[in-house]
Design a protein that fits this description.
271 residues, 10 strands, 10 helices, 2 domains
Length: 271
């Protein structure tokens, strides 16, 4: 696996958010992390992106513990990972400049000086990866438009293009289409599959089981800070091993259950 967690746990104060979570994603696959709101999906993405260090367990990049690396080495790893948040954060600047931002902050000092020289003489050319990223999300024709004038769906697509333009090995998406209309959702899902076809590994946190069924190679069901089970979509949907998974797939409200320990371990045991 390219990026993995092994037995990670994390809490805020006395509150445990994740408990003994082991999960991984490889290049060229889509892993969706599903579960009700507040069960630790976003926190898991923050651990995978190295925004937070786990209280216990290991986050590994190509089998190397990232928190055993130097700060410089860990930064180099983080630059192979990009993240798209639920709410896009764009600059008051043209779409193209927003998409190029991730590339610019990764440049060395000498590369930044050369870029400023090119800007001074009016060279506004886009790099090939940024051009491809905008094309992937269907917004190449809006490259010169101010990003703040876009609709919410278009803004989220620009955020995705910016994350893709750095040519990452792994992309982490936190509820990327939770506030989007069906058309923008369809465009974004197609962009995810096109990124996968390029060899990018994609982790999508979502509570939308229909979306998970459409785009996933694997699904991990997270509940109450733990991975209840994971597997290919057809097994999670048609033959879940845990009753909680079965109930979530069926649309039941799991927070109404008071005693989780009383739940049978197999969906086949429920009646």
């Amino acid at each position: 696996m390219t990026l993995t967690t092994d037995g990670v746990s994390l809490g805020y104060g006395d509150e445990a958010v994740l408990d003994d979570v082991s999960i991984g994603v490889d290049s060229g696959e889509v892993l969706t992390v599903v579960g009700p709101s507040g069960t630790g999906k976003t926190t898991l993405l923050r651990l995978l992106s190295m925004f937070r260090r786990p209280d216990a367990g290991t986050v590994a990049w190509h089998d190397t513990d990232v928190w055993g690396l130097s700060d410089e080495e860990r930064l180099a790893v983080r630059r192979q990972i990009s993240m798209v948040f639920q709410e896009p954060s764009l600059f008051n600047a043209p779409v193209a400049r927003n998409v190029l931002y991730g590339q610019r902050v990764r440049q060395s000092w000498s590369e930044r000086v050369q870029r400023r020289v090119r800007d001074a003489v009016g060279d506004r050319s886009m790099t090939e990866t940024a051009h491809t990223a905008l094309e992937t999300v269907g917004l190449l024709d809006k490259r010169d438009r101010n990003a703040l004038s876009l609709s919410g769906g278009e803004a989220q697509r620009v955020a995705f293009a910016r994350a893709l333009a750095v040519d990452p090995e792994i992309m982490l998406l936190d509820e990327p289409s939770s506030n989007l209309d069906p058309r923008n959702t369809a465009v974004l899902e197609e962009a995810i599959l096109r990124a996968k076809a390029r060899g990018v590994g994609v982790v999508v946190a979502t509570h939308d089981m229909n979306q998970a069924e459409r785009i996933s190679d694997r699904i991990a069901f997270v509940y109450d800070g733990s991975v209840v089970e994971s597997g290919p979509p057809e097994r999670i949907f048609d033959d879940p091993r845990d009753r909680r998974t079965n109930r979530f797939v069926a649309g039941d409200l799991l927070y109404e259950v008071d005693d989780e320990s009383a739940l049978p371990t197999s969906a086949s045991e429920s009646s």
